[in-house]
Amino acid sequence: MKLKKLGATILAVSLALGGVAVASPIQKTYAASDFSYSQEAKDALEYINKIRADAGLGSVTLNPFLTKAAENHAAYILANGLTHDEIAGKKGFTGERPKDRVLAVGGSTSLAQGVGEVASAGFSSLESAIDSMLNTSYHREPYVSQYTSEIGVALNENRFVLLATFATTTSVISTYPYDGQNNVPTTFIGNTELPNPLSQFGISKSGYVISFYPPHVLDTKKIDATIKDSKGNNVPFFSEWDNGFWFFYTKEPMKNSETYTVSVNYKPLYEPEYEGKTLNKTWSFTTAAGFSNSGSNSGTTPSPNETNIPPSDTTSAIGVGEKYSKTNVGVRINSKSVELSPKAKVVNGSTFIPLRGVFEKLNSTVAWNQKAQQITITRGSVTVKLTVNSKTAYINGQKKTLSVAPFVDKATNSTYVPLRFASEAIGAQVSWDQSEYMADIVAN
């Protein structure tokens, strides 16, 4: 892959879910007891948890398998250049994708399936590498998501890698800048992140990125929000939704030493206790008097060559700028975009998902009987049985008739099942956006 020649770069991979790993890792496996954390990992954890504590978020912990996978990938980056996809045969190869590298060191399948990765190169310290990601939109997500639970971090010379996994439930709201934060930068330069969040709005720079993430499923098309300055004047802004986060970009850079108040009215979807109710979150923050790089409220200022550095042109974030279609249907589970391999798709007007990937994320187990061509999906006390090319299904032994039958895609040799029936049969709720080719699955 072609990378820009930059003094510092950042790279992100959102949730890497879906198909079975195809790489052949060479790294030996480890037991948790085999591993001790480097001082750099401990320092990074302390800094990240300080940021999270200031933002009212729970602390995260180091996971030995995530950390070892991060160390391996940092070594690969040092030898081969910044990338999130490793190539077999190259020095330091331990797995093609983040999930493969977690599996390669002995991490469990459940740990590997939900892993996300961000990486940087060229920054002079852990703090500046982390701050560079906080100062963007999509790269910020694992640091300030209330769902982040375990991380693995590594620093090899100036190559920094973070892996993260996510919990399934929380009642905490994430805002960033957080309520009461001071020394907030005034400006976001769009090309410091790819895909460039500002290109869709036709501008090159905006005010510092504001993010809002409630623990609910919301309308992803529109949001009722206001941003006001200290005099009560409305500040115009653009907004977008990504992976559970709403991002707000003021149309002009913010003013120095100014206090801004953000207020969001929102209506949780698919939750009976909030039926017909509108909730509100209001918070304020104050911009810096001069240059600031954000992060914790330490007020530290990086050297000029560490500011506004564009990331690699291979940076990707699921759900941003991605064009979904009949052969590449987008899937979100509890507001989180998931990557499926092979892709979900529409066949003769019905949406199908690959057997593996979605149901594991829904805390279900999937069994395949090759001889009978039968699929068994179990979630809690519910067992669903489907048969390839048959419209007859069973839910806890009760016969059901499907409108469409599961099938095997010959091109990928993957089994596909009807999205709505299979998901709703195990207690999930499904909504479908035809214009966007996007399926939303909500499960408790």
Automatic annotation (TrEMBL):
Keywords: Signal. Residues 292-318 are annotated as: Disordered. Coiled coil: none annotated. Residues 1-23 form the signal peptide. CDD domains: CAP_bacterial. Transmembrane segments: none annotated. Residues 333-437 form the Copper amine oxidase-like N-terminal domain. Residues 292-305 have a biased composition (Low complexity). InterPro entries: CAP_dom, CAP_sf, Cu_amine_oxidase-like_N, Mao_N_sf. Residues 45-158 form the SCP domain. Residues 306-317 have a biased composition (Polar residues). This is Uncharacterized protein. It comes from Paenibacillus antibioticophila. The lineage of its organism: Bacteria, Bacillati, Bacillota, Bacilli, Bacillales.
